[in-house]
Design a protein that fits this description.
Layout: H1 2-18, E1 24-28, E2 31-34, E3 37-38, E4 41-46, E5 49-50, E6 54-59, E7 62-65, E8 68-69, E9 72-77, E10 80-81, E11 85-90, E12 93-100, E13 103-108, E14 111-112, E15 117-122, E16 125-132, E17 135-140, E18 143-144, E19 148-153, E20 156-163, E21 166-171, E22 179-184, E23 187-194, E24 197-202, E25 205-206, E26 210-215, E27 218-225, E28 228-233, E29 236-237, E30 240-245, E31 248-255, E32 258-263, E33 266-267, E34 271-276, E35 279-286, E36 289-294
Parallel strand pairs: 1-6, 2-7, 3-8, 4-9, 5-10, 6-11, 7-12, 8-12, 9-13, 10-14, 11-15, 12-16, 13-17, 14-18, 15-19, 16-20, 17-21, 19-22, 20-23, 21-24, 22-26, 23-27, 24-28, 25-29, 26-30, 27-31, 28-32, 29-33, 30-34, 31-35, 32-36
Length: 297
């Protein structure tokens, strides 16, 4: 009788171990965080898995640094939960802040939802801030719901100097039942001055949409105050967008300028296929506006 009870207990333990969530395997090198000042916050997550998800991450040098007060930095690389799988190999990823009341957030290759998969290979990704009240957010190859995101990224750079600036870059994200396969070259955003805004979205898919995008070098730059730049490439909402883009350049100098570029976006049930060469916009002076829309539905 005692032997039978012991056997049942052992079998129960084995069943529990068999039903346990999948393992998370991470190989990391040169991870550094540093703070100076008061009320700063830094958070770094590498290769986490929740539920039945698998996360396998090989990370090169990862750095976060802060100087000033009331700054916050967040970094999440290769997280997977709710049955998802995330395989990420990342080169050098760096975030840096100087000043006060700044915020940076970086997410690479996260997968969220049942059946979600995110496979991302990234080169050097850099974010930097100097001044006060700046904001930067970067998302690369995230997948949520039933979506899949397979992204190979070159160097992505964001930089700010001044005060009250904002930068956002979203590359190859997929949500809902969407699928996003994106290969991106160098993407750069830069700001100098105050009250500026830059937004860049490449190959995002939401709902049931599918976005397949191959992009060359995309550059945005600002100098002055109260400038705004937006570039949206190959985004789809409920539709399908297939886009191959060469170099797209935007540049501003002065004050109260506005530039916008939209290439191959589709919404609803629409589908868009666009192949384009180099698109260049440039401004000098004040109170100017430029807009280019190609193949949008």
């Amino acid at each position: 009788m005692k032997t039978s009870i012991l056997a049942r207990r052992i079998a129960g333990v084995i069943a529990v171990l068999a039903a346990a969530p999948a393992m998370s395997q991470v190989t990391a090198s040169n991870i550094n965080q540093g703070q100076a000042g008061m009320l700063n916050n830094q958070t770094m997550d590498l290769g986490n898995s929740t539920g039945k998800g698998n996360a396998k991450v090989s990370v090169g040098s990862v750095n976060q640094g802060q100087a000033g007060m009331l700054n916050t930095q967040k970094m999440a690389v290769g997280n997977a939960k709710n049955g998802s799988k995330s395989d990420v190999a990342v080169g050098t990823v760096q975030q840096g802040q100087a000043g006060m009341l700044q915020r940076q957030s970086l997410e690479i290759g996260n997968a969220d939802g049942n059946g979600s998969k995110s496979n991302v290979k990234a080169g050097a990704v850099l974010q930097g801030q100097a001044g006060m009240l700046n904001n930067q957010e970067l998302q690369i190859g995230n997948a949520s719901g039933g979506g899949k995101s397979n992204v190979a990224v070159g160097a992505v750079v964001q930089g700010q100097a001044g005060m009250l600036n904002n930068q956002q870059a979203k590359i190859g994200n997929a949500s809902g039942g969407g699928k996003s396969n994106v290969a991106v070259g160098a993407v750069a955003q830069g700001q100098a001055g105050m009250l500026q805004n830059q937004q860049l979205e490449i190959g995002n898919a939401s709902g049931k949409g599918v976005s397949n995008v191959a992009v060359g070098a995309v550059v945005q730059g600002q100098a002055g105050m109260l400038n705004n730049q937006q570039a949206k490439i190959g985004n789809s909402t409920g539709g399908v967008s297939n886009v191959a883009v060469g170099a797209i350049v935007q540049g501003q100098a002065g004050m109260l300028n506005h530039q916008s570029v939209s290439v191959g976006n589709s919404s609803g049930g629409g589908a868009t296929t666009v192949v384009t060469g180099a698109i260049v916009q440039g401004q000098g002076g004040m109170l100017g506006a430029q807009a280019v829309n190609i193949g949008n539905k």
